[in-house]
Amino acid sequence: MPTFFHFLALLAFKIFAEEQVDVCIMEVGLGGKYDATNV
Hints:
mainly alpha, 1 helix, 38% helix, ATP-binding, ligase
């Protein structure tokens, strides 16, 4: 089960893909290896 933070990050990625966003800057919430925004 993903955490709430992971869910919001995935939702943001989905919306960015649907809206065909060229550039997105996302703030790292926790930092580190297991952060939801670690790509």
